[in-house]
Specification:
184 residues, alpha+beta, 4-stranded antiparallel β-sheet, 11 strands
């Protein structure tokens, strides 16, 4: 009688394990990110594939190497970035992520490099538009499309830490002057 319960419990645990694996396979992205494109491809060892990004605003590139190791190079000064000439890069052995700021000159060049450690690399890159609101240093809010709002923000909490740092620097400089006066 114990054998049927053991097999039922084992089946229940196995189904829970499979369902938790399926949930963890889905990648989580912030809700402020809007999926624009999905690009899949293959690249030979030591070769580049080039893409051009024309979309304005803050863009997030998330590339997963499905086989091998593909690396990501991004530039707003050349349409053919490489490991010698780039502005942004991600060269991990797993998921590569690059955040392209809104101020980058369009078109942006994207280079995907097939690492020589593998004969061929397969990748999937998802391109997201980031709609999050940026906080300007003067307390004004700006959206990623560059438009400012007229609402003023309350003073930032880091103002207090800047005052503390200023007081500490003043004390440190006073002590240093005193030590120098004593020595000379």
């Amino acid at each position: 009688m114990a054998a049927p319960w053991k097999s039922a419990l084992l089946l229940l645990l196995a189904s829970q394990a499979v369902s938790s694996v399926n949930v963890s396979d889905e990648e989580e992205v912030p809700e402020e990110w809007v999926l624009l494109h999905v690009v899949q491809g293959q690249i030979g060892a030591g070769n580049y594939s080039y893409l051009r990004l024309n979309h304005e605003g803050k863009i997030v590139l998330k590339m997963q190497s499905l086989k091998g190791d593909a690396d990501l190079y991004v530039s707003d000064s050349t349409l053919h970035p490489s490991f010698d000439e780039y502005d942004l890069q991600s060269v991990t052995c797993g998921q590569d992520v690059v955040f392209i700021p809104a101020h980058f000159q369009r078109p942006v060049g994207i280079g995907i490099y097939g690492h020589p450690s593998h004969h061929e690399s397969e990748f999937e890159m998802k391109v997201y538009y980031d709609t999050t609101v940026e906080q300007h240093p003067f307390g004004e809010t700006a959206y990623s499309d560059g438009t400012d709002t007229s609402r003023k923000q309350a003073s930032a909490p880091e103002d207090g830490s800047q005052e503390e740092q200023s007081v500490l620097w003043t004390i440190l400089i006073s002590i240093l002057k005193l030590v120098l006066e004593i020595l000379f």
